[in-house]
Design a protein that fits this description.
By secondary structure, chain A is mostly helical. Chain A has 15 helices and two strands. Chain A has two domains: 60 residues, no CATH class; 180 residues, MetI-like (MetI-like fold), CATH 1.10.3720.10. The two termini of chain B are 24 Å apart. Classes of the chains: A mainly alpha, B alpha+beta.
């Protein structure tokens, strides 16, 4: 083929598009790369001016993140036995000894339990509700849908105090269950609306075929509708998880100890033994990983989910 | 295999009545056509028989059992959808075996059944393909396979050929009819295509605005339409309807159009006022001895026949004549109508007047 085509972009257009995408990627990824790099810097390098792009990597930030340490004087150091592990060595090199593990691991686990737990519940209830809204005659359907959406219209901080008081009454303050329920409630509006859109797109005929083929309504729902809504469920799950994972305002107000998630915990690292930016950066880096894996696993669905319904099949 | 009886079946959607008190009987093994323009209630009727829609009132009997309020899954019928509704996440074999799985049939038996059905339909080679990439015809066959594999009491088909292109439609029409003859199962088939209905159907119900207009075998409906709607809807070109003002008494064998007496079958019903003289195009011939005349305004050559459009004192008329007869636009000719084939309609009520010729057909419908 030679010459000019109406639909096929020209070489120059392709180059331009590529350049645009790369520029955008650099702009959005640069802070991320900086955080990851800072996690491997020494405290001195992390605050040096001008900023250091090339530096000698160290795991000090990660050791500091996962441990609590005590500062020792050089004279004390003489009296101690040589460190036996690489992380003790790193701590010793910066003039400290490890006193015990930090609470980061436990906070991170809280994030995982609360994030994935609330995502599961949001999707579970959201799918059922969306299916009902999509298929059945529900009295005052439009009003209900608007009501569900309206819960998203105010900032979380506006309802934080009432929720705090309710949780205190119910004994849900600073519990994983409380946070799961709260994030599920917040995410449900999103999941019901998104999933209703996806389910609306699935022709009714498939379920009718299943009903005729001898299946019950519920069987038709989970054997025929659910597989076809997989794309929508995957993309909705990603949105729900990202919200629950990154949520800060509720977490900082309603959790302080046992159920505290990573976002309110990470800034508290700053206060321990001076401004330990590498430890903060290390905490943020590790915090990114689960969502990243989750998104990559569901990436294929996410892409087709975004374009879903754009083209009439 | 079953007889299906529809009794006073009615469906309202809010204020809108989709089906008005319909009654008809589908005999065991019949290929039964529900024919009508879109929005006439034919699909709603089919869906009520299948159990996808619950009737507002009335009864549906399948094999002697009243099922109108039962679930679709309890009626033991199969349904072929217009867009086929093949499960997109399953391959061809899984699609066909799906109804058997719900019956908890052993795997080996399912496999044997599916293989047998695939053999009947000639789709053995695509059994392991996903349904997404199939051609329209193959989708159609898979949908049929899914329907016949469980040997249901009856088949419901909702315009199953509607999604196919014209050439392939012709072929599938024959295939469907052959399949029906082989299986001998009661089939209810919805279509808006009168030609399809005549080609395949043992019996036809013509519906319009939610009511049954006529019910009978294709030839009876074609020859002796019960209403003006049926006369106009069936046939291509449709029946010529010449409007005139006059009166008919019981026993009349003549009617006067534009001052000319024309012979008609002996009338058994008196009427007067706005009447309609109905004659099929193939029963109009050119005879210059006739005093009833018209001017040729167009001719269409169709190979074996010619359609001549003629302006008459009572309106435009089409005649189907042998291709060997040549007429020129602008000529005026005498017209003759085969007297044994004429239907007279009362325009106000829209129904055919009873005559000795159509009595046998209209009495039972």
């Amino acid at each position: 083929m030679s010459g000019f085509s109406v639909t096929e972009p020209s070489k120059r257009q392709k180059w331009f598009a590529g350049l645009l995408v790369i520029t955008y990627a650099v702009v959005t990824l640069l802070p991320l790369l900086w955080i990851i790099a800072t996690g491997f810097k020494s405290p001195a390098d992390s605050i040096s001016y001008p900023p250091k792009v090339l530096f000698e990597p160290t795991l000090e930030g990660y050791v500091n993140l996962f441990s609590t340490r005590t500062r020792i004087t050089p004279s004390m150091r003489e009296t101690l036995v040589e460190p036996t592990t690489w992380y003790e060595q790193i701590a010793r090199d910066s003039g400290t000894v490890i006193a015990g593990p930090s609470r980061y691991g436990q906070r991170f686990l809280n994030s995982v339990i609360i994030g994935f737990g609330s995502t599961f519940l949001s999707i579970f209830f959201g799918t059922l509700a969306a299916y009902a809204f999509s298929r059945f005659k529900v009295p005052i359907k439009e009003d209900l849908l608007f009501f569900i959406l309206s819960t998203r219209m105010m900032p979380p901080i506006a309802v934080a105090i009432p929720i705090f008081l309710m949780f205190r009454q119910l004994g849900l303050n600073d519990t994983q269950l409380g946070m799961i329920l709260l994030y599920t409630a917040v995410n449900l509006s999103l999941s019901v609306w998104l999933l209703k859109g996806f389910i609306d797109e699935i022709p009714l005929e498939y379920e009718e075929a299943a009903l005729i083929d001898g299946y019950t309504r519920f069987q038709a729902f989970y054997k025929v509708v659910l597989p076809q809504a997989a794309t929508g469920i995957a993309s909705t799950a990603i949105f729900c998880l990202i919200f629950a994972w990154n949520e800060y305002a509720f977490a900082v107000l309603l959790t302080s100890g046992t159920a505290q998630t990573a976002p309110p915990f990470i800034p508290t690292i700053i206060g321990i033994g001076g401004q330990d930016w590498p430890a903060v950066a290390a905490g943020a880096t590790i915090f990114l990983i689960p969502v990243m894996i989750f998104t990559i696993l569901l990436r294929k669905h996410l892409l087709s989910g975004i374009t879903f319904g754009a083209v009439r099949k | 295999m079953a007889q299906i009886i529809i009794k006073n079946l009615r469906k309202d959607f809010g204020d809108f009545t989709a089906v008005k008190e319909s009654s008809f009987t589908i005999e065991n093994g019949e290929f039964f056509m529900l024919l009508g323009p879109s929005g006439c209630g034919k699909t709603t009727t089919l869906r009520m028989i299948a159990g996808l829609e619950l009737p507002t009132s009335g009864e549906v009997y399948i094999d002697g059992e009243e099922v109108s309020q039962k679930r679709a899954s309890e009626r033991d019928i199969a349904f072929v959808f217009q867009m086929f509704a093949l499960y997109p996440h399953l391959n061809v074999r899984q699609n066909i075996s799906y109804p058997l799985k719900s019956q908890r049939m052993p795997k080996r038996e399912i496999k044997a059944k599916v293989d047998e059905v695939a053999g009947i339909l000639g789709i053995e080679d695509i059994l392991n393909k996903p349904v997404g990439g199939l051609s329209g015809g193959d989708r159609q066959r898979v949908a049929l396979g899914r329907a016949i594999v469980r040997e249901p009491k009856a088949f419901m088909m909702d315009e199953p050929l509607g999604a196919l292109d014209a050439e392939f439609r012709e072929h599938m029409t024959e295939e469907l009819r052959a399949l029906h003859d082989r299986m001998g199962a009661t089939t209810v088939y919805v279509t808006h295509d009168q030609l399809e209905a005549m080609q395949m159907g043992d019996k036809i119900v013509v519906m319009n605005h939610g009511s049954v207009e006529q019910f009978g075998v294709p030839q009876e409906i074609y020859d002796w339409p019960a209403t003006l709607f049926v006369a106009d809807f069936i046939g291509s070109p449709s029946m010529n309807l010449l409007r005139f003002n006059g009166s008919i008494a019981t026993g009349d064998t003549m009617v006067s159009l534009d001052g000319q007496d024309l012979e008609i079958p002996e009338q058994l019903q008196a009427a007067s006022g706005d009447l309609v003289f109905g004659v099929r195009p193939e029963h109009v011939s050119m005879n210059d001895n006739s005093a009833y005349r018209g001017e040729v305004t167009a001719t269409e050559y169709l190979g074996t026949t010619r359609i001549i459009t003629i302006d008459t004192p009572n309106g435009v008329l089409k005649a189907r004549v042998p291709a060997s007869q040549v007429f020129t636009v602008g000529e005026t000719h005498g017209l003759e109508f085969n007297p044994r084939t004429i239907s007279i309609f009362d325009e106000t009520s829209g129904t055919a007047l009873l005559s000795k010729a159509n009595k046998g057909v209209l009495d039972h419908g």
